[in-house]
Amino acid sequence: MTRALVAAAEHHLLPDAYVFGLARVRFLTGQRYAYLCGEYSTSGWASYFPIAFLIKTPVATLLLTAAGLAALVLRRVPVRSPVLLFG
């Protein structure tokens, strides 16, 4: 990514402000410590977003989502049902 930014700046492929912004984002998104379930890491976790989703989503929303998916899997609600099409 750094070589691409240097090439874009040298050959004026992108506006200077845009290249500067991309370089700044690249710099600011370097390694940082992250915390999840009692552990620190600089490389992150593959399970971060699923765990964060389950922790931060209200229980009622999780239950309704599970019930809806179960109804679709068990075919109690037809896939072409007007309820699914028009809400």
Could you characterize the architecture of this molecule?
59% of the residues lie in helices and 7% in strands. With 87 residues, the protein is mostly helical. It has 2 domains: 1-30, no CATH class; 32-87, no CATH class. A two-stranded antiparallel sheet has the order 1-2. Helix 1 (2-10) runs antiparallel to helix 2. The radius of gyration is 23 Å and the shape is elongated.
Topology overview:
Blueprint: H1 2-10, H2 16-28, E1 34-36, E2 39-41, H3 48-56, H4 59-73, H5 82-86
Antiparallel strand pairs: 1-2
Helix pairs in contact: 1-2
Beta-strand share of residues: 5-15%
- Number of helical segments? 5
**From the helix content, strand content and strand pairing, which structural class follows?**
mainly alpha
Sequence stretches where pLDDT stays below 50 over 5 or more residues: none
Distance between the termini: 44 Å
List SSEs in N-to-C order.
HHEEHHH
Fraction of residues in helix: 55-70%
- The shape is elongated
Structural domain count = 2
Rg (CA only): 23 Å
Task: Give the spatial strand order of the biggest sheet.
Answer: 1-2
Please outline the major beta sheet: 2 strands, antiparallel
Q: Summarize model confidence as the mean pLDDT.
A: 84
Q: What brief labels describe this structure?
A:
87 residues, 5 helices, elongated, two-stranded antiparallel sheet, 2 strands, mainly alpha
Provide a quick synopsis of the model:
The protein has helices spanning 2-10, 16-28, 48-56, 59-73, 82-86; strands at 34-36, 39-41. It has a two-stranded antiparallel ribbon with strand order 1-2.
